[in-house]
Write a structure and sequence with these properties.
By secondary structure, the protein is mostly helical. It is built from two helices and no strands.
Length: about 80
C-alpha cells in the first residue's frame, strides 16, 4: 500500500487528537483521584491502562504519518 500526503496528515491528525483528548482524560482522572473519589482499584488501573495504550497508539500513528509525509516530500 502506498501512502499519499492526505494519509499522512490524517494519521498525524488522529495522533494529535488522541494526545489532546487523553491528556484531558488524564487530568480529569488525576483530579478525581486527588480529591479522594471513592472507586475500586480496578477502576483506576483500567483507566490508566486505557490512557497508556491510547497514547502508545498516538505515537505509532504519529510516526507513521510523519514517515508518510517525509516519503512523499522526497518524491
Amino acid at each position: 500500500m502506498r501512502f499519499e500526503r492526505t494519509h499522512g496528515w490524517l494519521l498525524v491528525g488522529v495522533a494529535v487528537w488522541n494526545v489532546v483528548t487523553y491528556a484531558m482524560f488524564t487530568r480529569n482522572l488525576w483530579s478525581a483521584h486527588a480529591s479522594g473519589e471513592d472507586r475500586p482499584t480496578g477502576y483506576w488501573v483500567a483507566h490508566t491502562v486505557l490512557i497508556v495504550v491510547n497514547l502508545v497508539i498516538a505515537v505509532v500513528l504519529g510516526r507513521l504519518g510523519l514517515k508518510a509525509l517525509r516519503a512523499r516530500a522526497q518524491d
